[in-house]
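Ops channel
N.P.: pipeline sanity check, posting one input/output pair.
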């Protein structure tokens, strides 16, 4: 299975930044505080969210489940990978700076300034991330899902690892019960497969193939 960290390392930062820089010349960036939310569909219009600074969680509207996290520079809303954009919201987890524009306006600008190469790279990156999400979250056992999320947490930035408990990280991203997740984590920690202190994941030693 392709490693989540490897997929992140292939992020086409230069192409995302090229789009942001070009669009910023004719559209002023906006700032927002942590907690502010944005929709990818607004009054029947498809929107594109371009994150210049900070981080946001991608959440499912119905239950608040975290589907993913984006960090600047990032673009969301260019593709139709999401079957129902009205059921997805972006929530800032830090102070952010961004552009929030109709997709039609973005595509017009791209056409006028010959930025299709950068768009292509961004779309390839989105497809890779979506494919990785399906591999690590769909059609697998509960234990495998917990292991995949532990690896994702282990690969996250220092601030996330230092402030978000392993249990909270998993529960925010799955519909699993708290008792079930806590039991698996406790057993893995007791067996020396992972090290958890005060709820925080310190390190992964070796996760057993079966539980």
């Amino acid at each position: 299975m392709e490693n989540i960290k490897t997929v992140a390392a292939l992020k086409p930062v230069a192409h995302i930044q090229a789009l942001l820089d070009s669009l910023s010349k004719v559209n002023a960036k906006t700032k927002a505080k942590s907690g502010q939310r944005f929709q990818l569909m607004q009054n029947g219009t498809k929107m594109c969210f371009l994150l210049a600074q900070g981080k946001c969680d991608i959440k499912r509207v119905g239950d608040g489940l975290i589907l993913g996290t984006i960090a600047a520079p990032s673009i969301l809303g260019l593709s139709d990978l999401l079957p129902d954009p009205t059921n997805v919201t972006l929530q800032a987890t830090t102070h952010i700076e961004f552009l929030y524009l109709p997709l039609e306006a973005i595509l017009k600008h791209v056409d006028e300034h010959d930025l299709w190469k950068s768009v292509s790279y961004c779309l390839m990156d989105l497809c890779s991330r979506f494919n990785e999400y399906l591999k690590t979250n769909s059609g697998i056992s509960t234990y495998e899902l917990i292991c995949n999320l532990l690896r994702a947490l282990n690969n996250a930035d220092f601030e996330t690892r230092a402030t978000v408990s392993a249990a909270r990280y998993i529960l925010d991203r799955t519909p699993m019960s708290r008792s079930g997740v806590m039991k698996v984590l406790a057993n893995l920690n007791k067996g020396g497969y992972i090290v958890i202190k005060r709820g925080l994941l310190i390190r992964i030693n070796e996760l057993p193939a079966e539980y």
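N.P.: looks fine end to end. Helices lie at 4-9, 13-24, 103-112, 116-137, 142-154, 158-163, 166-171, 178-190.
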